[in-house]
Amino acid sequence: MKTYLSVWQQENLISQEDVRLKIIQAGSLAPSSHNTQPWEFKLLSNKNTFEIYISRSRYTPEVDPDYRQTWISLGAWFGYASISALQFGYTLSAVWHEDWASSPNRMDSPIGLLKIQSTTQIDHPLYPYLFHPDTNRSPHKKHSIPHPLIDLIQSFNKTDVRVQTITDRHLIDNLSSLAYQAAILETTQLPIMKETTLLFRKNEREKNLYGYGFSIDSNPVTPISLWFTQTLLTVFPRLSSTESASRVFLSNMRKSLSHTEAILCMSVPVMTMKKCIEIGQVYAQIVCLGHSYGVACHPISQAIEVYDAMLETKLNIEHLLNIQGELMMLVRVGFPTKSTRPSIRQPIEKLIRK
Ligand SMILES: Cc1cc2nc3c(=O)[nH]c(=O)nc-3n(C[C@H](O)[C@H](O)[C@H](O)COP(=O)(O)O)c2cc1C
Known about the structure:
This protein is α+β, with helices and mostly antiparallel strands and about 350 residues long. It is built from eleven helices and ten strands.
């Protein structure tokens, strides 16, 4: 079994004695921005509590200057972790430290205190879906999203966290076109591309060594072409240079965006750390609900990132969607044409601070 995939095995999770470790591990299957898995934990002596931190080495400042994507990812971890906690017979609650971002030593300070409390064990209907690969970037089949799923997604829509599923063809085409322009713009931003390239793991050795970041498996490929491409990338590392990575990224984006059945938009009236975490938590549940219908999610965040060069595109999209506040997630939703693989994850030992 490959180390970087071992966390996806349910048996490995069950073998942990401390329920906090089981919850941390199940949560770490959650989607995260650039697969940075930005979470770290400290187990406290009280066995019902643990602290959550943001990893200094996995934070991506160029693409995420105000931490919003990191916070959303943390929220996704919390969403998955909460589902697993109920499955194990616990509730999971959190006290988030709202002043974390203004602390000069923030990377050494916990961002939240987590608490578990025993409750009646239930078979959570979404628990099996934690173990499905989260993100599928392939073109969509020409099948509409089932209405019961749209209704379930809409049930998350509240005054302070807005959730909207767009199925209007004209609006989808306009959004897709803006998202593609954003992808092109992103490839011209050298600091962003450098940061992204540093997260690319080109072979099995690098995937095991790091356990986070991107690899060729993120795109639907057959095992033989995966082996062939990885071998090429190891022998000719220049193939994974910024320029060739950009070409592959743009070509895949164009294919996917031109076959998009629905787009999920999530926004907040005012962006705060807690709201970002809430968005992530809701997104985690939508990913699992989607799986239960065979429907896949694919965030297209390049268009709503907040570094200077992208701000105009983000404003254009917010205007097109008549967003009152800030758009936090833009996600392709549909029946995928190709299956995908679980992506690399770190073993639990790497997530625990001493
Ligand atoms: C806040 C956030 C933003 C993301 N943005 C993108 C994106 O712009 N493009 C993309 O292809 N995937 C995006 N993703 C998906 C991640 O790349 C994906 O979760 C990660 O690579 C791990 O893979 P998995 O979700 O298949 O487990 C995003 C995920 C999160 C939580």
